[in-house]
Amino acid sequence: MASMAKVKFHVALTEAAHRGVIKRAKDERDREEAWIRERRQELLAPGLSRRETAAVRRSIRAEVSRKRRSGEFGGNRDEIIARAVREELIARGLDHKWPKPPEGEVDAPGRRWGTPPSQPMGEGGYTERLSINLPYTLGETVRRAAYWTSKEAVEALQEWADRWGNDPETALREAERNGVPPELALAAAAGRPSAPQSALEIRDRLRAQVLTTGDLLRAAVDRAVSGGQLEVP
Protein backbone atom coordinates (compact mmCIF):
# COMPACT_ATOMS: atom_id res chain seq x y z
CA MET A 1 0.00 0.00 0.00
CA ALA A 2 1.44 3.36 -1.00
CA SER A 3 2.65 5.51 1.87
CA MET A 4 0.42 8.38 0.75
CA ALA A 5 -2.76 6.25 0.75
CA LYS A 6 -5.49 7.49 3.08
CA VAL A 7 -8.54 6.01 4.75
CA LYS A 8 -11.53 8.37 4.87
CA PHE A 9 -13.95 8.42 7.79
CA HIS A 10 -17.14 10.46 8.19
CA VAL A 11 -17.72 11.23 11.86
CA ALA A 12 -20.80 12.69 13.53
CA LEU A 13 -19.92 15.37 16.09
CA THR A 14 -21.58 17.76 18.47
CA GLU A 15 -21.53 21.40 17.44
CA ALA A 16 -19.04 22.18 20.21
CA ALA A 17 -16.60 19.45 19.12
CA HIS A 18 -16.87 20.45 15.46
CA ARG A 19 -16.33 24.12 16.28
CA GLY A 20 -13.42 23.23 18.55
CA VAL A 21 -11.49 21.18 16.00
CA ILE A 22 -11.97 23.81 13.29
CA LYS A 23 -10.65 26.47 15.70
CA ARG A 24 -7.68 24.29 16.71
CA ALA A 25 -6.72 23.85 13.03
CA LYS A 26 -7.03 27.60 12.39
CA ASP A 27 -4.94 28.45 15.46
CA GLU A 28 -2.21 26.03 14.34
CA ARG A 29 -2.25 27.45 10.81
CA ASP A 30 -2.02 31.01 12.12
CA ARG A 31 0.85 30.10 14.46
CA GLU A 32 2.75 28.38 11.67
CA GLU A 33 2.22 31.26 9.23
CA ALA A 34 3.38 33.79 11.83
CA TRP A 35 6.57 31.79 12.39
CA ILE A 36 7.20 31.61 8.62
CA ARG A 37 6.78 35.39 8.30
CA GLU A 38 9.24 35.98 11.14
CA ARG A 39 11.81 33.61 9.62
CA ARG A 40 11.50 35.24 6.22
CA GLN A 41 11.94 38.70 7.71
CA GLU A 42 14.97 37.43 9.59
CA LEU A 43 16.67 35.56 6.73
CA LEU A 44 15.58 37.24 3.49
CA ALA A 45 17.93 40.21 3.64
CA PRO A 46 17.96 42.82 0.87
CA GLY A 47 20.53 42.15 -1.82
CA LEU A 48 20.25 38.35 -1.88
CA SER A 49 20.41 36.80 -5.31
CA ARG A 50 17.44 34.93 -6.72
CA ARG A 51 19.22 31.64 -6.10
CA GLU A 52 20.03 32.58 -2.50
CA THR A 53 16.44 33.68 -1.89
CA ALA A 54 15.12 30.37 -3.25
CA ALA A 55 17.53 28.47 -1.01
CA VAL A 56 16.34 30.36 2.07
CA ARG A 57 12.71 29.68 1.23
CA ARG A 58 13.49 25.97 0.76
CA SER A 59 15.24 25.83 4.12
CA ILE A 60 12.25 27.46 5.82
CA ARG A 61 9.85 24.96 4.20
CA ALA A 62 12.09 22.09 5.29
CA GLU A 63 12.15 23.43 8.86
CA VAL A 64 8.34 23.68 8.86
CA SER A 65 8.13 20.04 7.72
CA ARG A 66 10.48 18.97 10.52
CA LYS A 67 8.46 20.88 13.10
CA ARG A 68 5.26 19.23 11.84
CA ARG A 69 6.81 15.76 12.09
CA SER A 70 8.03 16.46 15.61
CA GLY A 71 4.64 17.83 16.68
CA GLU A 72 5.98 21.31 17.40
CA PHE A 73 3.59 22.51 14.70
CA GLY A 74 0.18 20.82 14.59
CA GLY A 75 -0.17 20.89 10.81
CA ASN A 76 -3.49 20.75 9.01
CA ARG A 77 -6.72 19.37 10.44
CA ASP A 78 -6.09 15.78 9.34
CA GLU A 79 -2.56 15.86 10.78
CA ILE A 80 -3.84 17.25 14.09
CA ILE A 81 -6.50 14.54 14.35
CA ALA A 82 -4.14 11.76 13.20
CA ARG A 83 -1.74 12.65 16.02
CA ALA A 84 -4.64 12.64 18.51
CA VAL A 85 -5.84 9.26 17.15
CA ARG A 86 -2.40 7.76 17.83
CA GLU A 87 -2.44 9.21 21.34
CA GLU A 88 -5.95 7.83 21.92
CA LEU A 89 -4.97 4.34 20.73
CA ILE A 90 -1.90 4.36 22.99
CA ALA A 91 -3.94 5.58 25.97
CA ARG A 92 -6.44 2.74 25.48
CA GLY A 93 -3.76 0.09 24.93
CA LEU A 94 -4.96 -0.46 21.35
CA ASP A 95 -1.87 0.72 19.46
CA HIS A 96 -0.57 -2.61 18.16
CA LYS A 97 -0.96 -4.95 15.21
CA TRP A 98 -4.40 -6.51 14.87
CA PRO A 99 -5.38 -9.46 12.67
CA LYS A 100 -7.34 -8.67 9.55
CA PRO A 101 -11.10 -9.03 10.22
CA PRO A 102 -13.18 -11.36 8.04
CA GLU A 103 -13.81 -9.97 4.56
CA GLY A 104 -16.48 -7.25 4.54
CA GLU A 105 -16.83 -7.03 8.33
CA VAL A 106 -15.35 -3.53 8.71
CA ASP A 107 -16.92 -2.14 5.53
CA ALA A 108 -20.58 -2.26 6.60
CA PRO A 109 -22.18 1.20 6.87
CA GLY A 110 -23.25 2.77 10.14
CA ARG A 111 -22.67 1.63 13.70
CA ARG A 112 -21.87 -1.95 14.59
CA TRP A 113 -24.65 -4.52 14.71
CA GLY A 114 -26.91 -4.29 17.74
CA THR A 115 -25.63 -0.95 19.03
CA PRO A 116 -27.76 2.18 19.41
CA PRO A 117 -26.57 5.58 18.21
CA SER A 118 -24.45 7.00 21.02
CA GLN A 119 -26.23 10.33 20.50
CA PRO A 120 -28.99 11.04 17.99
CA MET A 121 -28.45 13.46 15.15
CA GLY A 122 -30.16 16.76 15.78
CA GLU A 123 -30.66 19.14 18.65
CA GLY A 124 -28.86 18.07 21.81
CA GLY A 125 -26.86 15.40 19.98
CA TYR A 126 -24.74 15.20 16.85
CA THR A 127 -25.53 18.10 14.56
CA GLU A 128 -22.34 18.14 12.47
CA ARG A 129 -20.36 15.75 10.31
CA LEU A 130 -16.62 15.86 9.72
CA SER A 131 -14.58 14.05 7.06
CA ILE A 132 -11.26 12.78 8.37
CA ASN A 133 -8.46 11.35 6.22
CA LEU A 134 -6.01 9.15 8.14
CA PRO A 135 -2.83 7.52 6.85
CA TYR A 136 -3.70 4.04 5.62
CA THR A 137 -1.93 2.08 8.36
CA LEU A 138 -3.43 4.24 11.12
CA GLY A 139 -6.91 4.06 9.60
CA GLU A 140 -6.69 0.27 9.39
CA THR A 141 -5.57 0.11 13.02
CA VAL A 142 -8.65 2.12 14.03
CA ARG A 143 -10.94 -0.20 12.06
CA ARG A 144 -9.37 -3.40 13.31
CA ALA A 145 -9.11 -2.25 16.94
CA ALA A 146 -12.81 -1.35 16.95
CA TYR A 147 -13.76 -4.68 15.36
CA TRP A 148 -11.76 -7.02 17.59
CA THR A 149 -12.35 -5.08 20.80
CA SER A 150 -16.11 -5.31 20.20
CA LYS A 151 -16.36 -8.79 18.68
CA GLU A 152 -17.49 -10.74 21.76
CA ALA A 153 -20.01 -8.10 22.83
CA VAL A 154 -21.44 -7.87 19.30
CA GLU A 155 -21.87 -11.65 19.11
CA ALA A 156 -23.57 -11.63 22.51
CA LEU A 157 -25.90 -8.87 21.32
CA GLN A 158 -26.81 -10.94 18.28
CA GLU A 159 -27.70 -13.85 20.57
CA TRP A 160 -29.70 -11.46 22.77
CA ALA A 161 -31.66 -10.21 19.74
CA ASP A 162 -32.34 -13.79 18.60
CA ARG A 163 -33.87 -14.41 22.03
CA TRP A 164 -35.71 -11.14 22.68
CA GLY A 165 -35.80 -9.32 19.35
CA ASN A 166 -34.94 -5.70 18.70
CA ASP A 167 -36.73 -2.63 19.98
CA PRO A 168 -38.56 -0.74 17.18
CA GLU A 169 -35.79 1.83 16.68
CA THR A 170 -33.08 -0.82 16.35
CA ALA A 171 -35.34 -2.98 14.18
CA LEU A 172 -35.83 -0.12 11.73
CA ARG A 173 -32.08 0.54 11.54
CA GLU A 174 -31.34 -3.13 10.95
CA ALA A 175 -34.07 -3.28 8.28
CA GLU A 176 -32.54 -0.32 6.46
CA ARG A 177 -29.09 -1.89 6.73
CA ASN A 178 -30.29 -5.23 5.36
CA GLY A 179 -32.76 -3.96 2.74
CA VAL A 180 -35.83 -5.31 4.57
CA PRO A 181 -39.12 -3.36 4.25
CA PRO A 182 -39.55 -1.36 7.48
CA GLU A 183 -43.15 -2.47 7.99
CA LEU A 184 -42.02 -6.12 8.08
CA ALA A 185 -39.30 -5.31 10.60
CA LEU A 186 -41.75 -3.47 12.86
CA ALA A 187 -44.27 -6.30 12.64
CA ALA A 188 -41.62 -8.82 13.63
CA ALA A 189 -40.48 -6.62 16.52
CA ALA A 190 -44.06 -6.21 17.74
CA GLY A 191 -44.60 -9.97 17.74
CA ARG A 192 -41.74 -10.68 20.12
CA PRO A 193 -42.24 -11.08 23.87
CA SER A 194 -41.12 -8.08 25.92
CA ALA A 195 -37.68 -8.48 27.44
CA PRO A 196 -37.64 -8.35 31.25
CA GLN A 197 -35.70 -5.61 33.02
CA SER A 198 -32.85 -8.00 33.82
CA ALA A 199 -32.42 -8.81 30.12
CA LEU A 200 -32.53 -5.12 29.19
CA GLU A 201 -29.77 -4.44 31.72
CA ILE A 202 -27.66 -7.19 30.17
CA ARG A 203 -28.19 -5.64 26.73
CA ASP A 204 -27.16 -2.21 28.02
CA ARG A 205 -23.97 -3.64 29.54
CA LEU A 206 -23.12 -5.36 26.26
CA ARG A 207 -23.79 -2.21 24.26
CA ALA A 208 -21.42 -0.29 26.52
CA GLN A 209 -18.65 -2.76 25.63
CA VAL A 210 -18.95 -2.08 21.89
CA LEU A 211 -16.34 0.34 20.55
CA THR A 212 -16.96 1.83 17.11
CA THR A 213 -14.59 3.70 14.82
CA GLY A 214 -16.78 6.76 15.43
CA ASP A 215 -16.32 6.41 19.19
CA LEU A 216 -12.53 6.32 18.76
CA LEU A 217 -12.44 9.24 16.36
CA ARG A 218 -14.75 11.40 18.49
CA ALA A 219 -12.48 10.73 21.48
CA ALA A 220 -9.50 11.75 19.33
CA VAL A 221 -11.26 14.95 18.26
CA ASP A 222 -11.93 15.78 21.93
CA ARG A 223 -8.26 15.06 22.66
CA ALA A 224 -7.14 17.34 19.81
CA VAL A 225 -9.41 20.16 20.95
CA SER A 226 -8.19 19.86 24.55
CA GLY A 227 -4.53 19.76 23.50
CA GLY A 228 -4.16 16.11 24.46
CA GLN A 229 -4.96 16.58 28.14
CA LEU A 230 -7.60 13.86 28.39
CA GLU A 231 -8.04 10.78 30.52
CA VAL A 232 -9.48 7.65 28.91
CA PRO A 233 -13.01 7.04 30.22
Protein architecture, described:
With 233 residues, the protein is mainly alpha-helical. Helix content is 60%, strand content 7%. It contains 8 helices and 2 strands. Strands 1-2 form a two-stranded antiparallel ribbon. α4 runs antiparallel to α7. Mean pLDDT is 83; it is low at 229-233.
| Number of separate strands | 2
Q: Which sequence of SSEs, written as H and E, runs from N to C?
A: EHHHEHHHHH
Counting DSSP H or I runs of 4 or more residues, the number of helices is 8
Instruction: Give the strand order, joined by hyphens, for the main sheet.
Output: 1-2
Range of helix content: 55-70%
Question: Strand-residue fraction?
Answer: 5-15%
Termini separation comes to: 34 Å
Radius of gyration, in angstroms, nearest whole number: 23 Å
On the 0 to 100 scale, the average pLDDT is 83
Shape: elongated
Spans of 5+ residues with little confidence (pLDDT < 50)?
A: 229-233
Biggest sheet character = 2 strands, antiparallel
Structural class: mainly alpha
